[in-house]
Specification:
The protein is α/β, with parallel strands linked by helices. The chain has helices at 20-48, 98-112, 127-131, 164-167, 185-199, 217-230, 286-296, 349-363, 393-401, 411-421, 443-469, 473-476; strands at residues 6-7, 15-17, 54-55, 58-66, 85-90, 116-124, 178-179, 209-213, 239-242, 246-248, 266-270, 277-281, 303-306, 309-312, 322-331, 374-382, 404-408, 425-433. The chain contains 12 helices and 18 strands. The longest helix is centred in the first third of the chain and has 29 residues, at 20-48. It is globular, with a radius of gyration of 24 Å.
Amino acid sequence: MNQRSIVTPKLMHPEAYRDPKKAVAQLIVLYEQATTFLCEKFSKAMTEGHPGYRYRAFYPEIRVTTTSFAKIDSRLSFGHISSPGTHATTITQPKLFQKYLEQQLTLLIENHDVVIGIGVSDTPIPVHFAVANDARISVPQDGAGEFTLRDVFDVPDLSTTNDDIVNGTYKVPEDGTEPLAPFTAQRVDYSLARLSHYTATDPAHFQNHVLFTNYQFYVSEFEAYARLQLADPKSGYTSFVSTGNVEITDADGVIEPVLKMPQMPTYHLKKDDGSGITLVNIGVGPSNAKTATDHVAVLRPHAWLMVGHCAGLRNSQSLGDFVLAHAYLREDRVLDDDLPVWVPIPPLAEIQIALETAVAEVTKLEGYDLKRIMRTGTVASVDNRNWELRDQSGPVQRLSQSRAVALDMESATIAANGFRFRVPYGTLLCVSDKPLHGELKLPGMASDFYKSQVARHLMIGIRAMERLSETPLERIHSRKLRSFQETAFL
């Protein structure tokens, strides 16, 4: 098949902008032109068969060139280019990311006095991602159609869908173009599709503040809190979204139970500006924790927190006590290839303060009295749910040497992926058992614990997020999360 047998929409010439809103508006035009073309051609091919040639459309692109080392506000961790040169990124679903894109482009224009180039990239849009925007169209599995899909359309290419940029392994091409954003359009599209699958809610519902938990018990409490907020016109919350994209806007709205729960049930307490709270029940295990954060990261949340249960490792702890992680012992193994275990995962001051303040507010304890129910220390995360059944000498000795105060299976993974993806992170756990001291998680004891502690624990996470939502974004995003050569986009 030669180049002339490829049919594309009319390609528009690149344009330069100094108005970020107009630049993003042009991204929307280019993206909708490309995806509409693919949707129309796909529907036609499914009806009429192989057209005899190939259809192709391309992602839009942002391109910026700087010629000098600009003097920038050194307090900012994003919004500036580290060295002169050309920086570019492909863009998908610009309507979904409109506020984010306008914010990032505004900072570039202010900090570097540059024009923003908007045009068509040379990266094809896979047809699966294009038709995902049209609920009337579905892509048949390979072999179900009358022709081989990849002979006519571009399909997802995992060889170019990776985390090289955030992992610091990106190879600059021969033309010297550096990445402008942490994720390419293909990587974002892949994660948006996965989020819809795993959470059974549309990515558009996700809010900027994400709570992860490892128990479904937290969901009913979150819904109860959401209904209280919807009943209060001064709360600022506008709707609550449950599994299956069921959305209610008043406190008495009906949410029918679903017949089949998704792998990671997700719920959204929304505000019009996206500053609400999303709760994701990731279930148990570091693999789930990595999967969830791998995909939520492309939405560029302002913060994510783990509010789950843990094993208390100190005899001085009691069931129901809280643990505020300030360090992590990583024995989860799921991120070793992307983020070596020798990389330290630092605590972030703004997150730590928000969590400690929230504990004090909810428990009505402060200062030295707060130490009765909360320990600050190292949290260990392992990949073995029954770690306590192994030879005690090895695991227990390492835990003691690390000064760990608690152990779970998700927190270090979520924190490490927050570090890797430059998303502010934190952990507040609740002690649900003490296996080293004979207090095991048995059915009756667990039920009493859940009834008394879940509501209070969740409220602390919510209060912390609400405090963070009132904090300017540039203060939350720490320079600790940025490497030597960073993308300008957050």
